[in-house]
Specification:
Helix content is about 25%, strand content about 30%. It contains nine helices and 19 strands. The chain has helices spanning about 5-15, 115-135, 165-170, 205-210, 265-275, 280-285, 290-300, 315-325, 335-340; strands spanning about 35-40, 40-45, 55, 60-65, 75-80, 80-85, 90-95, 95-100, 105-110, 140-150, 150-155, 175-180, 180-185, 195, 200-205, 230, 240-255, 260, 305-310. The protein has a nine-stranded mixed beta sheet with strand order 3-1-2-4-9-8-7-6-5. Helix 5 (about 265-275) crosses helix 7. The chain is globular and about 55 Å long.
Length: about 350
């Protein structure tokens, strides 16, 4: 590390320590790491996160500003963007810096010169933390989680499917908010899956907010020049783990109205595996087999459904209604006729009572 980089790290630490309180949260004193909680772990960090809530207790994860390795010699996967091996991950993020993640316990951040702090945090809470969660043996799903009637539901799908719009609509109808973009599923006693709270912020594109009648102009953008906003969740944030009942895979199709399809068996596992957050890292981390086993275990405990919405037509109210009605049923989904009798569930040819 050259002298200029050393100076940059000192400046970043100094700026973090002297950052004013954000949302009334506690700031630790000079020379002490900030202590936050997110995704079910306590995080001691040299970097202050406006996004996260502070906490107390023993840290599970340490984030430090420092010098990262130049390479991982025993890497199973190595390319221009990242290297990965068992319990090691090295990310190179353009205009942000380098991130070294080890043993599910430590992240070393070496920022680029003149990197925007929010860009540094974006990759840190994104890909770097995704690798750390995998190392810790949990199931990170690329989707947002809400609480409905005391149970958790994850809304997943490809980019542009309408996940954020649906989550915002569910929140407007009284659902609690658990996480945005990454939903961390842990497996407890009896193989019961729970969603761990993320942090009280939802990312929304401006057009999605406009469709919902929300004014996001007062909120900061995720990055400079991006039309996506970091919307603070002031009310309804759930701070305790909640049992996972359902995962909804949202898809847009050429159809007249929204509909729900229950999935069963291998199709349920496929949804969990397909929408694993940063799934491309599994092979390099040597976790593909164990991760697939974890998806299979969780799939047996929950209902997995495909939520089809009409493309080119705003139908979020109907989508939210379908989700709420399904969540009102038993967690195991043992009686598919209960849903079918209400006229909102279409069972595909593979559906069965396990769902």
């Amino acid at each position: 590390m050259n002298p200029q980089q050393c100076s940059d790290l000192r400046d970043l630490k100094s700026k973090a320590i002297h950052t004013p309180g954000y949302g009334g949260r506690t700031i630790h004193g000079r020379g002490q790491p900030f202590l936050f909680r997110a995704f079910g772990v306590n995080i001691a960090s040299d970097i202050f996160f406006h996004e996260l809530e502070t906490t107390e207790g023993v840290p599970d994860v340490r984030i430090v500003l420092g010098e990262t390795p130049q390479e991982i010699p025993e890497a199973l996967v190595s390319n221009d963007r990242y290297q990965a091996a068992a319990n090691q991950f090295l990310l190179r993020a353009a205009q942000a810096g380098r991130y070294y993640v080890a043993d599910g316990k430590r992240i070393v951040v070496e920022p680029d010169q003149a990197a925007e702090p929010r860009r540094i945090r974006l990759f840190l809470l994104g890909t770097a933390f995704g690798a750390l969660l995998m190392q810790r043996g949990v199931l990170p799903i690329h989707g947002s989680a809400v609480e409905i009637k005391g149970q958790a539901a994850i809304i997943t799908g490809t980019s542009g499917a309408g996940k954020s719009t649906l989550v915002a609509a569910l929140r407007d109808r009284g659902s609690g908010f658990l996480s945005d973009d990454v939903s961390v599923v842990t497996i407890g006693e009896g193989n019961v899956p729970c969603v761990q709270p993320g942090y009280p912020q939802q990312k929304l594109w401006k057009d999605s907010a406009d469709n919902m009648g929300m004014d996001v102009s007062a909120f900061p953008t995720i990055l400079s020049g991006m039309d996506k906003y970091a919307v603070a969740v002031d009310t309804g944030f759930c701070r305790n783990p909640i049992r996972l009942a359902s995962i909804f895979e949202l898809r847009a199709e050429n159809r007249p109205e929204a509909a729900m399809i229950r999935l069963a068996g291998p199709d349920k596992i496929a949804v969990l595996f397909r929408h694993t957050y940063r799934r491309f890292l599994l092979a390099g981390l040597g976790l593909k087999t164990e991760h697939f086993r974890r998806c299979a275990v969780v799939s047996k405990q929950i209902q997995v459904c495909r939520l089809l919405r009409p493309s080119g037509k705003f139908s979020v109210a109907k989508q939210a209604q379908l989700v709420e009605e399904l969540m009102a049923g038993p967690i195991s989904g043992a009686n598919p006729n209960h849903a079918k009798s209400k006229g909102y569930l279409k069972n595909d040819i593979k559906a069965d009572t396990e769902c």
